[in-house]
Write a structure and sequence with these properties.
Aspartate Aminotransferase, domain 1, alpha/beta, 4-stranded antiparallel β-sheet, 7-stranded mixed β-sheet, Aspartate Aminotransferase, domain 2, 13 helices
Length: 392
């Protein structure tokens, strides 16, 4: 097929970023604390306003945000943190780096937390880290009800969920902390980078100090003086700051976020509609309370033998569409059995079965409707080839 869509390329950086980048390059003013009103502070203020939180801290990655959030909770060494088994390897890594123990919870064929397993493990943990993997929101009503009941703090890994809402409220604003990513494949792209948000002034002061606001650089943050003075020199510095150049690149994209969310949802829905017509594909439905902001599509293969699944993956990638099956790709960082650094091992048959049949294809917001239709048709054609080969 001609004009194969490039699903690897990110959305372009807006032209509006160029003037500020040129100024930063000409002055060399890349450190966030050189001036009172830095590009990083500007991004933090705009992001907090956009997402609907009191405070925002720009950091070097979403992993850094997760780590700082865990440290700010002061959970204690070997505290147990419940996470979904379907997430990226950076999430349990952040838990381990914070000297805590990841407790893995089963996920179902809809990619979300299995609530029964969640509740079975909830009373044995000290905190909950909800990872909205690939933008699929677990049942936040049930999660928050039971965490509140047990007085357990909640951190949201919203790396894939910027722009997603639950009952009209932004994902990332439900727990004590929300953590976002600006890595290249996200809706806002600075190559690397992240954001931590919270409504708690004391928690915010702690993460600011630990992020690398040494001496009195916390004065160049939004926040309340009494809380910063409380934690000055009491907490270790991890130096996880974002720089001005990255902040300027992200800030220029913020005005385009709503359009990217709309385009991403359109791309996902039209692709899902075409794929759902196949007897060999199941695309899980979203929750009624959830308005998603997808930049990719996930679907489950149905009725294929393991060799057929492998053959399908080979055929579609040979066609030029980059598709991964989480549980088949060698050393995939989203397959929990590859996390050999975990202090405790888990047998999670539901999650394992899902990962061995769950397909993942990027659908950047910049793609056209024709691009998405072509991608869907190529996926269906690859399945037809596999099934025809079997029949022959």
């Amino acid at each position: 097929m001609n004009n194969i869509p490039n699903t690897s390329q990110a959305d372009p950086i807006p032209e509006t970023a160029r003037l500020e980048i040129e100024e930063l390059l000409s002055t060399g003013d890349l450190f966030r604390y050189t001036n009172e009103q830095s590009a990083v502070l500007n991004l933090e203020q705009n992001f907090a306003l956009r997402i609907g939180t009191s405070y925002a801290l720009a950091v070097s990655s979403c992993s850094a945000a997760l780590f700082l959030a865990l440290k700010a909770l002061n959970l204690g060494e070997k505290a147990r943190v419940l996470i979904p088994a379907f997430t990226f390897g950076a999430v349990p890594s952040a838990v381990v780096h914070a000297n805590c123990v990841p407790v893995l919870c089963e996920c179902g064929m809809d990619y979300r937390i299995d609530i029964d397993d969640f509740l079975c493990k909830l009373e044995s943990v000290d905190a909950v880290l909800i990872s909205h993997m690939r933008g699929h929101t677990s049942d936040m009503d049930k999660i928050l009800f039971h965490c509140d009941r047990l007085e357990l703090p909640v951190i949201e890994d919203a790396a894939h969920s910027l722009g997603t809402t639950w009952k009209g409220k932004n994902i990332g604003t439900f727990g004590q902390f929300g953590c976002f990513s600006f890595q290249s494949y996200k809706l806002l792209n600075s190559g690397e980078g992240g954001m931590l948000v919270t409504d708690d002034p004391d928690y915010f002061a702690k993460v600011v100090v630990m992020s690398g606001a040494y001496e009195h650089n916390w004065k160049k943050h939004q926040g309340e003086k009494e809380f910063f003075e409380k934690w000055q020199n009491l907490l270790p510095l991890f130096n996880m700051r974002l720089n001005n150049l990255s902040a300027a690149i992200v800030n220029a994209q913020l005005p385009y976020l709503n359009q990217r969310v709309e385009n991403g949802r359109r791309n996902h829905d039209i692709t899902a509609a075409k794929l759902s017509g196949s007897e060999w594909i199941h695309v899980p439905e979203k929750f009624e309370q959830e308005a998603r902001a997808p930049d990719s599509i996930q679907f489950n293969l149905i009725g294929l033998t393991p060799p057929e699944v492998v053959q399908f993956c080979d055929v579609i990638n040979a066609m030029g569409i980059k598709l991964q099956i989480f549980g088949l790709s060698k050393d995939n960082a989203r397959a929990y059995w590859n996390w050999d650094f975990l202090p405790e091992k888990y047998n999670l048959p539901k999650t394992r079965e899902m990962l061995r049949n769950a397909c993942d294809v990027r659908l950047p917001a910049r793609l056209s409707l024709n691009d998405c239709k072509n991608i869907a048709e190529m996926i269906l054609e690859a399945l037809r080839q596999v099934k025809n080969d079997v029949a022959a």
